[in-house]
Amino acid sequence: MLTVKDFRQALLTALWFMFLTFPLLVIKVNPVEKSILWRWSNLAWVGGVSFGLFVASRLLLAFRAARRERIRLGLAQETPPLLPRLLAQRAVTLPLLGIGALFFLAFPTLFSTYQVNIMSTALMYVVLGLGLNIVVGVAGLLDLGYVAFYAVGAYSYALLHLHFGLGFWTVLPIGGLLGALFGILLGFPVLRLRGDYLAIVTLGFGEIIRLVLENWTEFSQGPSGIANIPRPGLFGIELSLEASIIYLYYLMILMVLFTIFMINRLQNSRIGRAWYALREDDIACQAMGIDKTRTKLTAFALGATWAGMAGVFFAAKTTFVNPASFTFLESAIILCIVVLGGMGSIVGVIVGALVLILLPEYLRAVADYRMLAFGAVLVVMMVFRPQGIVATVRRSYTVNR
Amino acid sequence: MDPLLTVSGLTMDFGGIRALDHLDLRLHPGEIAALIGPNGAGKTTLFNCLTGIYAPTGGELLLTPPGQAPKRLNGLKPNQITAQGVARTFQNIRLFPNMTVLENVMIGRHCRTHATVFGAIFRPPAVRHEEKAIVGMSLALLERVNLADQANEYAKHLPYGAQRRLEIGRALATEPLLLLLDEPAAGMNPQETLELNELIRSIRDDGTAILLIEHDMKLVMRLSDHIFVLDYGRKIAEGSPEEVRHNPAVIRAYLGEESIHA
């Protein structure tokens, strides 16, 4: 199956990786003693691992190609992918759901407050991912400035509390509405744009919001941010710090469930179908009588609504907001969650968010190489599984004949 | 009877090139008309003008639904034109490849249904009823184009001929008064073409007027009540299949100058 050429390429790849990682992994400068530590064993590791991975990937691709050939010749049957097939069976999904629900309910009793806090963050990204999924995954509009709506939500809580003393529960819907409003504001100028152009404009919009918050000091207190934002209230009961973290965790769980419910309903509706059609072919979509303008605007507005609400949660969780929390990197991570998890798939986005947010937390042991590993995972995923961890499966209808 | 579609003086310029030159067409309700002409004659451009994908440089497009006042189609957006009752298929198939066959047809119901975002979330009885009706009608249309067995397949997995039929089914879901078919028989085998012939007739018998672009002359001659011949953006002839077949201008356009004298 593998030829000499493959091995030669593997060797070249290994050498290239050794060259690339040389300054980072081999040379270690000790500025105090003014000496250099050469870690040659790392070089051998990099070379060996990249050689092995390359050969393995070639084997996998060759195996896949052979299988496709057999299917084409009629020698083998095409089997639907394993994961969706399993997920389609109630006998599998119900116990899984039960175990998952128990785990998430019992999480605060099983783990420390620190872990609970991390999990709350991950759940917040689940909400953000599901919101962006409407825009990118379902309607196919590449939005690189999603964090702007997150910032709008966070600052609406911070500012409304600062100036008017409004509480979390009052601001939560207001944050969502303001998010939607800004979604429409962004939507109007980009209605004519597609693909790369749309991505650039949304990127610009995201930066504009951040720069305004950073520089309009009278309005947003600039880079120093707004502190002392209260945590969510529970009928006026005073909560200890620990209790309020656990309380917020359960609120996040409720928020995630609420989001899943809403987005599931939206996707399986007249509006949701129009979004999918827009992603698939916008000319045919219009020719079939769908108002492109309105469909795009609803996608932007609804996606931004969830970012706005997640922003309110963020402000309540950290009790402090400043513009540095809303950089392009945040947008990129949320986009990664959607793409890695599986565009358009609710389960996929949840898995993607949990993996992408929790994995770096638990990989602190190799903290120095976290971003390196992160990048490698993304590259490998896009090469071998571009449809994401959990690919979308279109709903099937029962046909009574 | 008033014509269903009146095209008068339709002109379309692309930069310095005149793709359509003062074109006049009339199409009556319940009629199957064909639009023929050599490649580049402007047939698809006419379709794109009629469906709002291009904004015509000049001329009038009028749609007169039976018993109603004429409506101007110029300047309407593609979706508004579809809502007025003009649906189309595409020369290079434009289905929604990653949606199921049934969903493709359900999209066609969009402009005849009303559920809003709030309806989608709260699902009041009216919306549930509407969804049921969408699925029911879409399935019925799939029966009609002989695709009901593949309802839950992805559109991209259908064979070529079936994709063409699905495009027709999807267009019918918009309840058109006028159906524009752009080369519906392209890539079909003789058996499929025969079935297409029957399908188009049955659509006409249900009261939908049809305007089709087609290169399969046997199909055109067998099917059409009226034929328009285009060449270099001008209408060079029109009439019944018999009249068009013997028109010297048509023969010249198709076969070249010399063959007349040969």
TrEMBL record, chain A:
This is Inner-membrane translocator. It comes from Desulfobulbus propionicus (strain ATCC 33891 / DSM 2032 / VKM B-1956 / 1pr3). It is found in: Cell membrane. Keywords: Cell membrane, Membrane, Transmembrane, Transmembrane helix. Pfam families: BPD_transp_2. The keyword Cell membrane applies. InterPro entries: ABC_transp_permease, LivM-like. GO terms for cellular component: plasma membrane. The chain crosses the membrane at residues 12-31, 43-63, 91-111, 123-142, 170-190, 197-213, 244-263, 297-320, 332-359, 371-393. Its main location: membrane. GO terms for molecular function: branched-chain amino acid transmembrane transporter activity. It comes from the Bacteria. CDD domains: TM_PBP1_LivM_like. It is a multi-pass membrane protein.
